[in-house]
Amino acid sequence: MSENLPISGAGPVRADGRQPGQLRPLRFQNHIAPYATGSTLVEWGNTRVICGVTVEESVPRWMKEQGVVGGWITAEYSMLPYSTLQRKQRDISKGKIDGRSQEIQRLIGRSMRAAIDLERLGSRTIWVDCDVLQADGGTRTAAITGSFVALSLAIRKLMADGKLAASPLLHPVAAVSVGIVNGQALADLCYTEDVAAAVDMNLVMNSAGQFIELQGTGEESTFSEAELAALLAIGKTSIRELLAAQQAALA
Q1: Which of 159, 166, 163, 147 is nearest to 212 (CA)?
Q2: How many other CB atoms are found less than 10 A from the CB of residue 91?
Q3: H or E segment at 132?
Q4: Of 97-101, 185-189, 247-251, which gets the smallest average pLDDT?
Q5: Rounded mean pLDDT of 19-43?
Q6: What is the pLDDT of residues 89-117, one digit of tens each?
Q7: Looking at the predicted structure, is the pLDDT value of residue 226 above 70?
Q8: Which pTM was predicted?
């Protein structure tokens, strides 16, 4: 695999017409779920995820027992049966959540907790529910990016209702998938690229340029430090674009 990886707009056009560093079209439809405290439908290429936030005025029992001050954020993630080409069985029909969904919802929870001062949140629990309507790669990154928008809307409502005196939000958080396909670093992989990727990575970052999570795997082989650097460079550029899109959606 070549180590002279293109990391920006230059290079051959991808199957869907994009340049290597170009994101798929991204759109947020806010307030999609009227009964949620905050919600958005994130449409990212052909991936569609509803992110809804609800608030409970209590904290988990373990926090009370351990005397932990402040609030908590937790997440649930699911792919609806019709979100993929072949029907996906519901977790409830299997009697347990599958390992992938469990991993992703924990990642979403960690990402949203990094965006909030939990002490300033007060003694309440925020639930973030992410439901995938249509999957074409990057469902976890879409869920995280959309969840921050829904969370921000929920915090605004709590403040408007007089339940919070000041915003507990810290730095905005977004996520993107990157990978090496046919020897080239690409941003925002669609499903066909994800399947073909020799290296697959998910980046979760905040607006301060800090990493929250890096999930990188050599799907077919090992990868070098130069390849890692190329992926990080293209990913960080994408994160900046996503953060700007979030702020535009919240403006």
Answers
A1: 147
A2: 15
A3: strand 125-134
A4: 97-101
A5: 97
A6: 777 777 777 788 899 999 999 999 999 99
A7: yes
A8: 0.91
Angle at 180 between CA 179 and CA 181, to 5 degrees: 110
**Residue 230 · residue 216 · CB < 8 Å:** no
Identify the pLDDT of residue 6. Answer: 43
- The SS3 assignment for 196 reads helix
Grouping H, G, I as helix, E, B as strand and the rest as coil, residue 201 is strand
Strand partners, 130: 51, 77
Q: What architecture does CATH give domain 26-250?
A: 2-Layer Sandwich (3.30)
Rounded to an integer, what distance in angstroms lies between the CA atom of residue 73 and that of residue 114? Answer: 10
- Which 3 state secondary structure label does DSSP give 3? coil
Residue 33 backbone zone (phi > 0: left; psi -120 to 50: alpha; other: beta): beta
Q: Reduced to 3 states, what is the DSSP secondary structure of residue 19?
A: coil
Confidence of residue 11 (pLDDT cuts 50, 70, 90): low
| Domain edges within the chain | 26-250
Torsion angle of the four alpha carbons 46, 50, 246, 164, in this order, in degrees rounded to the nearest 10: 180
Q: Which helix (H) or strand (E) holds 100?
A: helix 99-113
